[in-house]
Amino acid sequence: MNRPRVVAILFGQPGAGAFNRAGAEGLARASALPVAIETVWEPVPARRAATVEAAAARADLVIAHGGQGEQAVAEVAPAFPDVAFAVTQGRITGPNIAGFEVLQEQSAFLAGALAGWWMRGMVAAHLSGEPVPPGLRGRAGFAAGLAHTRPEATLLSGFCGNQHDPALAGHWTAAQVAAGAEVQFAMLDGGRSGAIAACRAAGIRAIGNVRDWTAEDAVFLASAVADNGVAMLAAIEAFLAGAFTDRRIGLEAPEAVRLALAADVAPDLAARIDALRDEILSGAVRVPEDWPGRDWAP
């Protein structure tokens, strides 16, 4: 009996960035399942063409990894009704489309709250590449967490236009530092090294996302873990189980979504973060998905 064929499209290049690395690790875990997996790396934004090619190659399940694949799947899926399409970090709908999402806005909220409690000054920064829906929700979570603990603080929030350009990320980070930021929450992929270098050069702290960056570099104060590899694996498992419907995974699953703290975060501050997590899970604190503020640019 032939195993179902899964084609996963990752937008970027192998070895560049935590987001795609997490997705690839999720695929590696899925290799133990009764499926045949093909990974397609699409380094240029020819997203629709890559999605059409994957579906036309007799795939049973096509996975677009990341919200940047939403538009391509929305356009292509109706022409291939016998193919299932999944978007990780996506929320588009259709008879043969499902979204599988780790709620990075929840760990981002905790990151913003930490920034507000930790900062001595009044300015925090957020930096990402493209303003795709998951990134916008993550930004909204960080902004709301910052406002929750330091309502008078200013947030410099910008989308530099490219997730994978270290020089561009470094330029934007340096500009945010010059504007007064003392901590930066960066939601980047291949461009993260530029932001890290600029934070280190300026002597400010960074907050990462996707995986635990605090274990890798002392510049990180925390990391808003949102392991999208869990979403990748969940999409394949749901397809195999015949239960191909949207799934959202949040702080209730700490292996997927949590705030990792650096060793120098004070215990009392860590305890406040734990209490705030419990408030989010109980519904006492709501994490919004929109931010009414204005984008910042250097």
Mean of residue pLDDT? Answer: 92
| N-to-C series of helices and strands | EHEHEHEEHEHEHEHEEHEEH
Strand content: 15-25%
Query: Fraction of residues in helices?
Result: 25-40%
Q: What's the Cα radius of gyration?
A: 19 Å
The backbone outline, from C-alpha atoms, is globular
Find the count of extended strands (DSSP E, 2+ residues): 12
User: Could you give the distance between the termini?
Assistant: 58 Å
- As laid out across the biggest beta sheet, the strand order is 2-1-3-4-5-11
Largest sheet: 6 strands, parallel
Uncertain regions: pLDDT < 50 for 5+ in a row? none
For the structure shown, list the relevant keywords.
globular; alpha/beta; 39% helix; 9 helices; 12 strands
Give an overview of the whole structure.
- The mean pLDDT is 92.
- The strands form two sheets. Strands 2-1-3-4-5-11 form a six-stranded parallel sheet, with helices on both faces. It has a six-stranded mixed sheet with strand order 7-6-8-9-10-12, sandwiched between helices.
- The protein is built from nine helices and twelve strands.
- It is globular, with a radius of gyration of 19 Å.
- The protein is 39% helix and 22% strand.
- α7 (192-202) links the parallel β8 and β9.
- α2 packs across α3 (70-76) and α6 packs parallel to α7.
- It is α/β, with parallel strands linked by helices.
